[in-house]
Predict the 3D structure of the following.
Amino acid sequence: MLNSTIESLKNSTATAQKPKALTAPRSRSASLTATVATRPVWIALAVLLISVLLFMGLNAHGNWDFILAFRGKKLLALLIVGYSIGVSTLLFQSLTHNPILTPALLGFDALYVLIQSLLVYFLGASNLFSQQPLLKFAIEIGLMVAASLLLFRFLFTRSSQNLSRLILAGIIFGVLFRSLSSLIARLINPEDFVVIQAASFAQFNTINPMMMWASLAICVASAVYIWRWRHQVDVLMLGKAHALNLGVDYQALTRKLLIVIAVLVATATAFVGPVIFLGLLVCALTNRLSKAMYHSERLVLVSLIAMICLVLGQTFFEQVLGMAGVLSVVIELLGGVVFIMLILSQYRPQKA
Amino acid sequence: MLLTAISNRPRSWSIPPSLLNTLSVFLLIGLILLSLSIGVADFSWSGLWQALLQSMGQASSSGGAAAVENTDLQLLLLSRLPRTLAIILTGASLSVAGMILQVVLKNRFVDPSMVGATQSASLGLLLVSLYLPTSALFTKMVFAVLCAIGGMVLFMRLIKRLPPTDFLMVPLVGIVFGGIVEAITVFIAYQTESLQLLTVWRFGDFSTILAGRYELLYLTGALAAMAYILADKLTIVGLGDAIAINLGVNQRLVTWFVIITVAMISAVVVVTVGAIPFVGLVVPNIISRMMGDRLRRCLPAVALLGASLVLLCDIVGRSIRYPYEIPVATVFGVIGALVFLWLLMRQPDTH
């Protein structure tokens, strides 16, 4: 029913009024003024606020100091992950001009897990970086950026004409990276294995505070950059020829976007592990809710929707159903169904 | 259409089938001997021969009392030989299942784990283990087979709506479909705290195979043999519906036979050793590049190569971190994914 209300409201006005905050965590304090209900972004923001309140307040008995600190940390992590996955997927779809491609489908987050495993394999879990998780994170992100540029180049120069081959190759690359990771996991000693195991399964419950601040910094920095590029990305959507014609440095912008996407994927994966279909799910929702093609609106909306999915979903499963760990499984399930529906709906007009 | 396009291509490594099969047999025999002699427990062929000669001498003189102490022989009969046989049966039957599936679906890029069969079988196994925990192994297997058939039928209905020109859409939808079934399975397992049980079926591993625990796999051997008997009919169905009707082959019946065979092979393999990805994909692709798609001619080669390849992967898994073992599913995941990527990238664009 939420969708239908938003759907009906969305068509009313679509002026390019600029929403203030890109990173929603800090816009929590933004007051809900009277002019709220004109755009999907504001509705999404309101829903996010409600879900945040529910997440913080539901079944909260006892000491509020503890609850605020404990749940606040988790909440911040969910928001960071939602932002990273939503924005990276949307940018990737704009970059590749395709509504069913996501970085996760092409094996990017499996690549990050593989890089983590390789580092543990060659250096051991208790290497000089174990004292400095930030340095380790930085190295991982650096390797991730280089590796994903290579992977992207390989995938897109060899098979750019055929979409299904591209996705299939990406999925198989994902399988290959996962198999290699588990092969490495078998080759190392058990203490090191625990480190890799924690990295290779999606979970929203164990969060390292140190990493959280680093990731938050990455999110804010990337948000600033992406916000400055938003009009160029709009132009990019018109296609390579038009973008070049309109004065966009196509190669440079593509590279910059890929780097940001790789960094965001690494951030999200470092936090919760690989979640393959979340990006696809939230981008499909965003494309349905917002008919405006401007990235100023869609970028904000997609991160809000991703945050809502995570926060509301986690609240629902943790507090209402009492199942803390299954959110990622349910997301995979829904995302898979959405993916098949997207493919089938894409072919229906051709059949008719 | 696709199949003829592939088989008409100039075959770069054109080897006569009989020579190839002979080579494969020798390769397989070598690997079998290797597989029998690699393992953690001490085992030596000379010890075995000595013991055999001794026991024969003793048996002729004073009965078989000494045979019990013969550890080499026991090891061979209880662990090594069953394991090797299980590997051969699994590799051969999975490859044959992949081959007949590819021919009948007219698609080079499918295998039992890409049409939802393997995943549905483990879902069925989980359900029957949860709700009828005391049932016999055979009941469990029947239920797993039924679930695998159900999953495949659902998948066939899904891909009917896909355009026939884009043949890569079928494996794509298949992988995602399998992922959905797997997510349901994991969800149920998580709720019932049986994730550990599930790991056994999701990652194929031969290290638990002992005498008495693999005999169900002979059923897969029988199914593969049946596929060979029906090879010509399967080939005809693979040529297209019109040709099949013209030649008087009931293609509905044959398709059902393939679905049931593939479902049973996947279910039995999942029950006894666990899922092994890519076997049914990689092996048929290699063979049909060399021999084309006439099943009567290429099924033996497919079975031989499948057995050798899985055996080789298991030997690698056993020796790469001796004395520990790496599950064959992991080793084959790496090798199979590499081969599949290579196949995918050399295929020219059809658009």
Remarks:
- Residues 40-104+205-343 of chain A form a domain with the ABC transporter involved in vitamin B12 uptake, BtuC fold (CATH 1.10.3470.10).
- Chain A has two domains: 40-104+205-343, 106-201.
- Chain A is about 75% helix and 0% strand.
- The CA atoms of residues 121 and 187 of chain A lie 8 Å apart.
